[in-house]
Amino acid sequence: MPLDTSTYSLALLRLDGRRWNELRRLHAQISVQAAASGSSYLEMGNTKILCTVSGPSEARRGAGGGGAGSSEGNLEVDVSFAGFSGVERRKRRQDKRTTDLSHTLTSSLTPLLHLHLYPHSTITLTLSILSQDGSLLAACINSATLALIDAGVPMTDYLTAVTCASSPSTSDEEAGDPLLDVNSAEEQELPFLTLGTVGREGRVGVCVMESRVRGEGVEGMVAVGIEGCARVREIVDGVVRGYGKRFA
Amino acid sequence: MPITILSPSAAIPPQHAPPDDEDIPMADDDDSAFLSTAQPSSKNIVTPGETITSDPQWMRGHGTYIPPNTSTIISTVAGTLHKTNKLLSVQPLRARYQPEIGDLVIGRIVSVQTKKWSVDIAAPTLASLPLSSINLPGGILRRRTAVDELNIRTFFSEGDLLVAEVQQLHNDGNAALHTRSLKYGKLRNGVFTALAGAGGGIMSRRGGVVRSKRQTFTLQTAAGEIGVVLGVNGYIFVSKHVAPAEARDVSITRLEEGVSETLYSSQNDEVEPGLRREIARVSTLVRGLVACGAKVDEDMIVRVYEAAVEMEEEERVMGEKVFGVGEGAKGVVRSVLDRLAVG
Amino acid sequence: MPRETEISVNERAFIQQALQENLRLDGRAFDAFRPLELTFGDEYGVADVQLGKTRVIARISVDVAVPPPERKFDGIFQIIAEFSPMASPAFEVGRPSDAEMVLSRILEKAIRRSNALDTESLCIIAGLKCFALRADVHIIDHDGGLVDASCIAVMAALQHFRRPDVVVEGEKATILSVREREPIPLSILHQPLCVSFSYFEDGEIFLIDANLSEEQVRNAEIIVTMNKHGEVCQIAKYGGATVDPLALLNCTNVALQKVKEMSKIIQGKLEADAKKRDAGGLMAELSAENER
Fold first, then answer.
1. Cβ contacts of B56 within 8 Å, gap of 6 or more
2. CATH of domain B21-92
3. For chain B, how big is the Rg over CA atoms in Å?
4. In a domain, C3, yes or no
5. In this protein, which residues make up the domain named Exoribonuclease phosphorolytic (chain C) (predicted)?
6. Which of C232, C246, C254 has the most A C-beta neighbours within 10 Å, making it the best mutation to test the interface with A?
C-alpha cells in the first residue's frame, strides 16, 4: 500500500517524526557471543543484526575462491534472514538479494582487511538479520566492521555506512531534500542510496543505488550520506572504546 | 560545471551521549606529534584508522601500518599501545592466538598424514607435528623407522588431545610443534575447555591465559591431585594427576620404557566421582575467570579454587544460600572474587 | 575450478605506467567507448552488439502465462544472463561466478527495476493471462565491458521486438499471428544504459569501457546506469578501493553524456533497420503507385 509522503513538504518532519538529517537510534555491542572469535550486535532503529566472525582459521579444502594455497587469506560472508525478520515470512533461504548482500560485503571489506598477514586462512563472517526495517545493507556493513574489530583482524580503517533517500521534489527544477537513514516505509516509497565511507576523510568504499532518481538527487544523497557515515563512525568508535575501557 | 558538495546546513543532532572517556585528541601538525602519553599506559585505547604518530623516528610493529608514501603510523586494530624502545605496536583487545616459539599449547589432532599430524591450536592455520618430533616408545634417542610411519595412528589419531611446544615458525605463520619431553604428549583422564579469543598471551589483556613460568601445575584437592595444563593458545585441560613413575628405578632409559607403555594410551584411568567433581569445578572456575576478565594463571586458580571450596563448605554448614551467587560460572567466580577481596 | 588466467606482473606494471602517462594500450582516450557495432537479426528482437572484441547477443522471446497472483495487472519480464564457456575458458556452466551474479543483478536493477519496460502493457486479461517476456543474454566473446554491452543489447532488442497482437472478447483472448495482424512494438518508457568506470591509482584515473586486461589491473569499478533524460537508474560500487565522492559524482555527469551519444547510435540503427524492413513490406504494399 503506498504511503503518503506528501506531508513531508509541509512540516519538514518525516513519518517517524525525525528531521531530514536525523539518524535513528543506533545501538551496538561487541563481544556478544563467547564462542565466536569476534561478534557484534547492532540496531539501527528497528533493523537488528547479529554478526559473528570465526577465524582466521585454516582454509577449507576445495573451498571456492582458492583460499588454500594462496598467499592471502580470504573472506567468506554468509548472510541469513531470520524467518520472522520481515513483515512476511520468507520461504526461500537463498535468493538474489542475499547473494547480492554477501557479495557487496565481501568485496567492500576485503580491501580493508590486512589479509596478507593470514596466508592460507579463511575468515568467515556470519550475519543473522533478526529484524529488518530499512537500511539493511548499511546496518550489515556497520555490524560486520564491528565484529571484525572485535575479532582483532587488522584493518585499515572503519567502514561505516548509511542509507539516504531523496524526498519527492516540490518543483520540477529542484530535487527534493535528502533524508538520512531511511526506514522501510520510506524505502518503499522513495529512491534511496546506500553509501559506505572509509575513515575520517570520507572516501567512498561502497555506493549502491537501486532506484531511479534525477541526477541532482544523487548529489544531495551523497553529501548527506558522507556526513551520516562520519556520525556513524563516531558512534561505532565510541562503542569500541567503551568496550576497551573494561579491560583498561 | 564542477560539482561541489554542500555540507548540510544544520548539524546532525546528537542522539547519543558523547563517549565519556577522555578521547585522544586528533593529530596536529605541531611539535607534539605524538598523541599518547609518554608512558605505555593501558588506559589509551586506539581504534583502527587512528593516527598514532607522524614522527618518522618510530618503527611500526604489530597492529599498525604505514600508508604508502607517508611516514604516519596508523593503528589497524582496537587495543592498547605498547612501546618497546622505538617500536610501536598495538595489542588488540581480543584476537586469535598467534603462535610464538616456545609456547606451550594444547592441540587437537585434525588429520593424520604419512609423516606428520595436523593439529588445531586455535591459530590462523593448522600446526604440524612431524613424526620426528615426538617421543617414540622405547627410548628417546631412537631413530624413527618405516614401521613407526605405518603405525602413525597408534601414537596420535584424529581427535586426540595433546600438549606440545611450538618448536619452529615457518615464514607463512605455520607452526611446527614438538612433544620431545615427558611434560608433553597425549592428554587423557580429564576435561578440555576452550577459551575463545582469550589466548595469545596478550600482554595488556586481562581475562586470558598469560605466558608464565609454569603453565602446568598440580592442585591439591580433598579428593586427590588434579593436573591443570594452561595452553597459551587459550585451550585448557584439567585432569586427574597421574604421578610419574618415580617409585621405579630412576635410570633415564628405564624411565622412558616405563612411561612409553602408557604414553600413547587413549584409555582413561579410573577416576573417582569425587575427583570428577573437583575437575569439573576447576574447569568451570577457569571459564568464570575469563568471563570476569581476570587473569588466568596458577596463583589465581589456586586461590579461587580454595575460596570456592571454602564457600561451599560454609554454605553447607549454614544449610542455605548465604552468598548471592549469580548464574553460571561467571556468577560463582564473581562472588568468589568479592570474597577474596574482602577477606 | 578454472579461473581467469591472471595478468602477469609485468603487463600489470606496463598498463599502469602507460596510464600514468595518459595512454591506453589500444590508443583510446580515457573517456572513449570502443567502436560499437549493432546489428539486428532477421527476426524481431534479436540484437547483436559488438563492443571492440566483446560480443553479446540478446534475444527476446514471448509466451503467454498466468500472472503471479500478487501482481495481477502486470506481465512477466525476465532477463536471463548466463556465461557460457564459449566466451572464455574461465566461465563454467552451473556455477555462477561473482561476475555473472553482478551482471544479472545490474541488468535486473537497470532495466527491470527502473521500469524501462511498461509491464502493465503486457497484461492480456487481469489475473488470468499475460505475456511473459524473456530476454536471453548470450555472451559470445569476452573482452571486458560485459555489463555495458549486455545492457545495450537488451535495450536494443527490446526496442526492436514486436509482440503479436491480441484480441480480447470477454474472458477469451485470441492471439493473432503475424500474417493476420502486424505485430506491435513494446511500450518502452525510457532507455537506461550502463556505463562502467574503472579506476586506477586510488581514484586518480578513470577509464570508460575497460577491456579485459584493464579490468584485471583496475582497483575497482563503478557502474552507473542513466537514461538520456538525465535520470540515474542505478549506481553500483560494490567495494574495492575507495574513491573520492566528488569523482563519484563526476561519473554521473560523464555517464549522461555517453548515454546520450549511445542512445543516438542505437536510435539510428533502429531506424535504419526499420527502413530496411519496410522496403518491400507494408508501406510498399499499401502504396498504390505503380512502377513505370
1. B71
2. 2.40.50.100
3. 25
4. no
5. 33-164, 190-257
6. C232
Chain C residues within an 8 Å CB radius of B3: 246, 249-250, 253
Cell of B176: 611446527
Q: C229 lies in which domain range?
A: 9-291
Number of folded domains that form chain C: 1
State the number of CA atoms in the 13 A half-sphere of B282 facing the CB.
35
Q: ipTM score of the complex?
A: 0.86
> Which pLDDT tens digit goes with each residue over B157-207?
898 999 999 999 988 778 999 988 878 888 888 899 887 655 444 443 445
Is C82 strand, coil or helix? strand
Question: Is C2 a domain residue?
Answer: no
CB contact B3 to C (< 8 Å): yes
User: Residues C20-30: pLDDT tens digits?
Assistant: 998 888 888 88
Residue C155 lies in a domain: yes
CB distance from B291 to chain A under 8 Å?
yes
Residue C119 forms part of a structural domain: yes
**Residue B110: CB partners within 8 Å, gap ≥ 6?**
A58, B117, B118, B119, B120, B126, B158
Count CA atoms closer than 13 A to B107's CA, side-chain side. Answer: 33
| Phi-psi group of A228: left, alpha or beta (phi > 0 → left; psi -120 to 50 → alpha; rest → beta) | alpha
- CATH fold match for the domains B21-92 and B104-340: yes
Please give the angle made by the CA atoms of B83, B86 and B89, to the nearest 5 degrees: 40
Do residues B237 and B135 make contact, with C-beta atoms less than 8 angstroms apart?
A: no
Distance CA C91, CA C81 (A): 13
Other C-beta atoms closer than 10 Å to the C-beta of C239 total: 24
The pLDDT of residue B324 is: 58
Q: What is the mean pLDDT of residues A209-216?
A: 85
Query: What are the tens digits of pLDDT across the range A122-134?
Result: 999 999 999 999 8
Q: Output DSSP code: residue A190.
A: S
Give the CATH number, domain containing residue C202. Answer: 3.30.230.70
For the B104-340 domain, the top CATH level (class) is mainly beta
Q: For residue C14, count CB atoms less than 10 angstroms from its CB and return exposed for 0-12, middle for 13-18, buried for 19 or more.
A: middle
Q: Which domains does chain A have, with CATH numbers?
A: 17-245 (3.30.230.70)
Going from the C-alpha of B154 to that of each of B45, B188, B265, B266, C35, the distances in angstroms are: 49, 15, 8, 9, 69
